[in-house]
Amino acid sequence: MVKIDKKALKKSLEAVQKEAHAHVEEQKKIKIATRSTFFEKISRLLPKSFTTSAETLLRYSGKEEAHVESWVGKIFIYSIVLSLATATASYFGSITNEFYTLIVGVVIFIIAQSTPYFRLSIAADKRAKDVEVVLPSALQLISANIRAGMTPDRAIWLSARPEFGALMIEIKKAGAETIGGTPLTIAFQNMSKRVRSRILERTVLLVVEGLESGGELGKLLSETAAEIRSLDILRKEMDANIAMYSMFIIFAGMIGAPFLLAISGFFVEMLTKLSAVAGLEGEVSAKAQEAGVSLLTFSTSITPEFLLYFSIFVISITTFFSALLLGLIKYGDEKRGLEMAPLFVMVGLAIFLIVKIFITNSFGAAFGT
């Protein structure tokens, strides 16, 4: 067994405990600073599910120091102000219909209200991913400390290194809880509740069982770290296998659909303008019906403007759900696709406009469009 300097170990442990205590005090100050009586009263008028969801997401995303009720009330008020301002501007702008103005206001309110929650959810998933990446290294370090003769609690506290990022913060929080009198096993179970990671949850369960049973914890942690690394390698191999599906989704949503809609829009515009310029819409339709073909009968009901708006709507919806599907296939969580959704929508619309302009400039002169 490797000999360790007990005095140096004691000083290191005291430094970690002091830092953990200082972190808790800092969180309390932030919670007091972010508290607002007005927003807090607003949040109490809302359904309790708003506060419950926000509290869970703030905890998972590492922002539990924020005052939950004030945060919920602030988001709600900002959403109302933004929706009213947008609806008013649209009413005095291009949209004069009161019903459509109301729809715009409701849509903006829903987007403004849900966006912060989605951002917190994405941040929670990223944080969990960061923890899972460094977790094997942290377990190996704890295992090495235990095998060097440290007690499990000291081995864990001294593994809180800056390179572990979010995991270091969680270890410090658990250390602060034990300083306040919380048992070590309970402190670790609370740590798993602050990170939305099933891998961390199972690892903490193994550690707790090892501490309670008095088994060879060092060997158990080392084997767990090896299994997590094997799982990560398997996950990377799966990512390589689904690359073809990802490419198909990107091509269909961002390239294929905009290209086809741009061509169909030009086709309708060409037929409509040709029939209008020639003044033969009724005559051609009658002759076509006599021949059993109704090629131009739709030109009076489907206008190029309608098809343009319809194409923009279809491309936006298609690319949005393509991003969600890609997030589900690649990461196992459709919410991860929300990060890519704005880019997918913008690229899809850009390709649609580029193809439409190219076709119009290339063939429009020949048909008078």
What does this structure look like?
This protein has helices spanning 6-33, 37-44, 48-60, 68-91, 98-147, 152-157, 166-179, 184-193, 198-213, 217-241, 243-278, 281-290, 304-331, 341-367. The termini are far apart. 80% of the residues lie in helices and 0% in strands. The chain has 14 helices and no strands. The protein has three domains: 32-125, no CATH class; 128-231; 235-276 and 296-363. The protein has 369 residues and is mainly alpha-helical.
Explain the layout of strands and helices.
Layout: H1 6-33, H2 37-44, H3 48-60, H4 68-91, H5 98-147, H6 152-157, H7 166-179, H8 184-193, H9 198-213, H10 217-241, H11 243-278, H12 281-290, H13 304-331, H14 341-367
Keywords: Cell membrane, Membrane, Transmembrane, Transmembrane helix
Protein name: Type II secretion system F family protein
Subcellular location: Cell membrane
Q: Give the beta-strand count.
A: 0
Helix content: over 70%
Mean pLDDT: 79
Low-confidence stretches: 295-300
Straight-line distance between termini: 86 Å
The helix tally amounts to 14
Radius of gyration, in angstroms, nearest whole number: 30 Å
Major sheet attributes: none
Bulk shape: elongated
Order of helices and strands: HHHHHHHHHHHHHH
Structural class: mainly alpha
Strand content: under 5%
Count of the separate structural domains:
3
Transmembrane segments: 75-93, 99-118, 242-267, 306-329, 341-359
InterPro entries: ArlJ-like, T2SS_GspF_dom
Keywords: Cell membrane, Membrane, Transmembrane, Transmembrane helix
Subcellular location: Cell membrane
